[in-house]
Every structure is written in C-alpha cells, then in structure tokens.
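Bench log, entry 3. Co-assembly request; chain sequences pasted below exactly as received.
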Amino acid sequence: MDNVLKNPGMKKSLGKSLLYTLPMFLITFMFMTGGRPDFSNPSSSLAILIAFMLVNVLYFLMHYTGKTDKYRVVLFIIFALTLSFTLIKNMVAVRNSMSFSQADILECKIPFCHLVIPMMILPAAFSKSIIFPGSILNGFANISSMVVLWSVATLVLGRGFCSWGCFYGGWDDGFSRMRKKPLVKNINEIWKWMPFAVLLMVALTAALSLVPTYCAWICPFKAVTEFEQVTSVESATKAGIFFSLFAGLVVVLPVMTKKRTQCSYLCPLGAVNSISNKITPFTIKIDKNACNECYKCVEVCPMFALSKENIKDGKVSIFCSKCGKCVDACSKNAIHYGIKGIPAGTMKNFSRNLFLFVSFLFMAIFSAGSIISTLQSLIKLIL
Amino acid sequence: MKKLKIIAGLVWAFLCLVLIIILFPGLTGFSASLSKAPFMKIHPRYSGGEVEKQIISEGCTLDVREPVFKGLNSDRKNGFVQLDWRGTVPDEIRDTVDYNLDGTPDFYVLVDTKTQKTEIKPFNSKVKNVGISTPTSYGWAVRINLTK
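Structure output for the full assembly:
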C-alpha cells in the first residue's frame, strides 16, 4: 500500500460512520440473502456472512477513516480474483478445461463480458444483430443483462466503472501496488490516448470481419478467464498473444510503473467510459484555493488522469476513474469528490457520501455472487 | 445560473442514485425488455441461421439451416450452410442435402463420428468444402462452406 498522507477532512465519528453504513447494510443484506436468510446449508450461510461482513466493514471504514481508495481496492481486487476463480471453476466443471471448443461457439454458450460492447455497436446498427456467440437472455453472463449493467454503470459512474465495476481492473490495480516506488517514472503522456486508437481499430475491424476482434485476438484477460482451444497455429498464436499481453500489461508494467497500464493503454471500453465521464454527475474537483501544488495527486494517479496542467486549470481529465487515490493522498483536502454544477471546495462531504454510496453499492452487489461462490468452494475444501 | 447548475447537478446525481438502487432488483425485467429490441439477436454467422427444413429419421433428426451469407449490411460472396443432427447420432452419418430447396441434391456428406473425419461430394459448384465438423451437446454439427 502507498504511504498516504492523513486526510482528516473526511473522517467521521463512530456513530456517524455506523449511521452512514446502515443503508448499505440493509440493501446488501436484502441482496445477499434475498431478504430471507436460509441457514439450512452451513457452507452457503457462512460464505454469505463473510461476504456480507466484508463489504460492510470496508464501507464503514471508508466513512470512519475518510479514506476511499485504500478500502475500495480491497474489494476491487477480491472481485477480480473471485470472478476469475468462479469462471474457471464453472468452465472446468462443465468442460474440463479453461478453453472453449467449436461446439461451444456453435451452440452460443460463450459468457459475454462488457469488453465486447464497443465492437457490437456498428454491427448491431447495420446488420441488426450481435456478433457474439453468447445467449441473448438466458444463462450465466447473458448479453442483455451485461449490456444493461454496463450501460447504467457507465451512465452513473462514467469511467468510474473502471475502478468500481470492472471485474478485470482489480488485476492490474493489484499489481500496480506491489512496489513502494516505481522503477519507471517518465512515461510519455501520449500513450494515454492509445485506448481510443484501439477502440477505433477494434470497432472497424469487428464491423468488417463480423468477429469481435479484441476478444478474438487481443484481450489479455483471456489468460485468466477462457480462451479458444489450441488446435491450430492460429489458435496457438492467439493464446500466445493473450498470455504475453497479460504478463506485459497486467503484471510487469504495472509493477514497474505503479500505473494501471492495461486500463490506460489498451482497454477500448475504457475509452468509451472516458467519453461517458462527460455525462456522469460525479467527478473529482480541485479546489485551487486549498491546493499547495505539491503534485502528490499527480504522482499517485494510476490512470494518467492528472497532470500539473490539470491541477493549474483546476480540472481533472476525462481519463479519471474516480478511484480516490488522489483524494486519499491530498493532505490539504483540496482534491475531492464532487458533483457537476457544484463549485469546487463546497459540499465536499455530501458529494463524497453520495458518490461512495452509489459506486460502492454497485460494486458490492455486482461482486457478491462471485465472492460468495468462491468462499463456498473454499469452505467446502477446508471442511 | 450558478444556482440552476447546482440544482441540475443535484437532481442528476439523485437520479443516478435511484438508477443504481433499482438496477439490480429490476435487472431481469430490464434485460427482458432489451432482449426484445430488434438488434438483440445473434448474427447468423454465430447462431447458424434459421432452420429451413427438418429430415426426421429413426432416433435422429437432421436440421438443414438456411445458407448464411449475411455481412454487415449486404450479403457476402462466401458463406456456409449449417447441418445439425439431433438425437442419437450413428457411428457414421451419411446424408444427401438439398440446401437451396430447388429439388436437386447439392452435396453428399459423410461423417465418421468416431474419428471426426468429414467428407463431402459436391453436386453443385457453389458447394466448396467442410468448414466445421464437431460433436455438440445435442448431437453433431457440420458447416459446409459455400459461395454465392
């Protein structure tokens, strides 16, 4: 973890923190238990209890300590790990392997993920169909539910989706925290525009070939989810690309730079989410009157969303994923969660409370299924 | 103007709060509504196309799907026809198929389900070769490549 400076402005008393946690407590209880806790299955009950306690303790600590990113990242990493575990476990149970076969494609049994969305827009508009071998409505990770979940999340959180909702982001976020200091510091800022180039490339190639090219050829997270069965030179090349990109962009570069390099340099959905940052009501505000220009926030930003120019202008860039790392790092409480329309430096606590509730609730409920499923498997393994 | 901006920001933020609260309880309903949108169907390149005719034999049914040439907004020169054998698939599948429903056979297909070896004998110059031949959860599927 980074050495973050104390940020007393957002701390709350024990009573107030408990009060702020109460709505999260009730809503997550309803979602995790369905409103009717069933104690007939001990391993399931224990898994639900642990997951429930985890999310609520983290949310409480965000209010009590005033720190956001420090506790967000715990759930975010757990989400990424448990999602991959659950997905791989299900695939091994069904197929005895992490790879999918031609039969799975022909039967449209491939789980859909949000990264396909940028590639399906043009074909959906022109051919009135989805270029993905998944299920429209039924089964695990069906296309309709994933599109609804992402659409609402990106509307509400903008690029905040990349730090509060994406079940892959926790991988490079986790690896970017492995070292205390970066080995590579000077990175040309031009690279942060790369996702827009990738977006353009995959959207056009997918429309022309009718193949979701990012998933078929580039996605590093195939390495920790599922990939095409290696049966030819082509499928072996694809597997090689997936594992190389995962090793390079998700493991090695984040460790060396302390930046989320996959999210910042490659992800085409990140580019779309950056655009929706213009729509969301939630943002990060810079109070120029309180800022002492120490640029600690610029240094810690994992998404290349802050530069010295941004601080001088008093505005964060469209690349901001609202992770809260800069907010936690600011000793003057000059950089803070805000709502568009409300001037910087005002209603800081209110804006943070509202944003935290919305974003954390999304992550808590979205991640609950995979966390509970993983815990159940671990409990069964131990008992 | 400043006040109006503050009010608009707050209203939008509270609307987002409501959206997130109703998102998960309403997910099944929202997804079902979205699935009815005209573009929410799988491209025939993946689904294999609509079933054009069924040939029922003892223990096994052959679904001949309509040929797929569909591109982004117009047909492409190359496509395929998908054949699905459902039910108890014999060790050796032999069928003569008229995919374009013109009353004359277009190709003869032979599948050895033990070795997965699949051969075709085209009777029509538009029939090219075997694209995919694989066992499936329902039996066996073959895609034969075609030209228009």
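The CA atoms of residues 34 and 147 of chain A lie 24 Å apart. Chain A touches chain B through 51 residues (CB under 8 Å).
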